[in-house]
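Lecture 7 notes: from sequence to structure.

We start with a single chain of 168 residues. Read the sequence below before looking at the structure.
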Amino acid sequence: MGLKFLIIVLIASIISVSLLVELRNTKDKKQAFTKDLEFTNTTFTEVNTEKMQGWTFGTYGERDRGVLKLDNVVFHTDNIESLVAKKGKYIKDVLFLDGDVVMQEKDGYTYKTQHANYHQNTEILNITAPFTAVRGNDVMAGKTLKYNTAKKEAFGTRVDAVLYTTEK
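Now the structure, written as tokens:
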């Protein structure tokens, strides 16, 4: 009787352990390293055969799978004195900006928002969050704005403005 009891307990133990333990013959999956580039305090200058197109500065950045991510971005072109943000991300020719985005035009408005994107080919800044724009005493505020920096044309939604004009 004691031997039968011992064999039953032993068989039950083997079955329970085999059900609880998962047997795998696979290796742990390791993520492949895909980062192409990593840098600190770097300026990228874009030029063509005729002149400098613009430059971008970042305090830290990395390029991973074709996407360039930047911290503390400063961007400059002929029409834009500065375009600054806490975070930036280049996907092809579009610069996506997040966190305290400020664009200072040359001899123009200063735009402030939290989210925007700038298309380098078309030179259009799309402000996708509530914004304010100030030039001297002129003040605008709105929900979104599409601004062509080359033509100096803006189209906004839900815009409130106080503009001072000269008398003629």
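The two ends are 117 Å apart (CA to CA). Keep this in mind for problem set 3.
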